[in-house]
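Thread: "does anyone have the structure for this chain?"

Original post by V.I.:
We have the sequence but no experimental structure in hand. Need at least a predicted one for the grant figures.
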Amino acid sequence: MALDSRPLGKMLDDVAAGHIQLPDFQREWKWDDEHIISILATVTMDYPMGVVMTLATGGPGGKFKTRPLQGVQPAEGVKPEQLLLDGQQRMTALYQALRSGRPVDTMDQRDDPKNLWYYIHIETAIDPKADRESAIRSLPEDKIIKPVGRRAGLDLSTTGLEYEKGYFPLWYVFDSSKIEQWQWGYTEGAPERRAAWIQFRVAVLEKVQGYSVPLIRLEKDTPRDAVCTVFEKVNTKGVQLTVFELLTATFAGDEEYTGEHGEFHLPDHWKATRDELTAAYPVLGGLQNTDFLQAVCLASTYHKEGVPISCKRRDLLDLELADYLEWAPKIADALHWAGEFLTDQCIFRSEDLPYRTQLPPLAAIRTILGRETEEPEAHEKLAKWYWCGVFGEQYGGTADSRFPRDVEQVVTWLRGGREPESIQEANFVRQRLLTMNSRNSAAYKGVFALLLQEESVDWYYTDKPITGDQVADGTVDIHRIFPATWCDKHGIDAQRRDSVVNKTLLSGRAAKTLGKNAPRMGLELLERETGIRPNWLDDALTSHFIQPEFVRFSEFDAFFGTRMQELVKLIRRAMGREVTA
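Reply from O.Q.:
Generated one for you, tokens below.
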């Protein structure tokens, strides 16, 4: 990092020539008229405007797709020498207002788009008591402000009117020939203006022409992740760049690829991949672009000799386009397999997926092992690892540090090695069932997937087990067994009332018939309405691990205790581990 300063005029020349450009991850320029007048006042008074930061191109940190500052039209084929990391708004405003020779593409206070010219009033500018911002005026493209009510208009539509009213065009400030010509017109036949012009030249023009921009220059060998971190720290709007945005700019700037194939657009590739996956498997509907990138990174680093397997932000930023193009199709295929795997686990919708964050390691494992995962023993082991992650609640929060360990150890285990630490460490405490009361809990979702695996039967349509299609189309959903109103009336505490133990999967028709009645009455209504025999309905309840007699006699405590024990056994079987009391 080097501290420096550069004349404003030279920097604007470099901007105009395309030698200074923006990395494509920068947001669009969006300054309004008020901000532009403020920065112009700052520069014309030679006040500090804040540090600008640039990065030299040609190194690992500068391999981004680039674009000129807004309004700049450099010659074809010009490559930038510096990327502007901090100062885009200021430099774009100054370029458009002082150097472009065109109206500034901005907006008014109501965010309506405007094309404005910027002038400075000479008499106001040289008045030591006047506020500098009041000396700067913006006029529409035709340079005419029409009078409205008591507000005076202003017409500067000809050079003669500029001279007459004493408004100097600020876009002349770095063009000596235009300044000289304008001076002659302003002072010709008006000797009293010569003194004002001399004052104006010293107080405004020379200050702008001699203005030095404080500059921090990052050398070209600055690592990419450092560039991104620096950008986020210095950005005045606190913009948090996503890895996906950064890689979009990086991949698009890959000259080796673009020279042969044209620009690679990551968002288009991701959208096509995601659309294909979600059309086939609704359970993958919540898959994020970062999940996909993490899976690619896990597979890529696993196969690189001497490189630790990882998928943290820095590792994602180090992904090369060649690596992405090699592994992305394989990860997409693996996610198709993951959709089938989740279907086998009776998870059908994205909202019922316990942890979306288990998808990257699952896809990476499949990519590494390929068809080995289809062997019955391997499939059984993967299911055990999966449910240990769900009921051990291991994938909540930031889990990217767990991914590499799980990928490496699960692959080794499936090939005959020792059991992964994630399975050894997995623990489910029996009392946790009391606090599982909503889909916010991965384990809560897991319980209902296990009930589907056990072929639980609906209480209204008892001829066959509940299907994934019924869950997917919303025909079946989660409902209480003992209704909330009955629980409240009989003093059942809210924790047990709302617990997963007091809930199961039922069709909307069954839930409607049960209503808010006492459980015994609800079952009798079901029997009358459907014509089902009581013992057949009891069998349907048993398929949900419910003792029918406790529901028929409204014995909540007995019902709750026995079902809690049954759910614990169900979870223990899925995890292949004992459950803590």
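V.I.: this helps a lot. The chain is about 50% helix and 10% strand.
O.Q.: and The mean pLDDT is 92.
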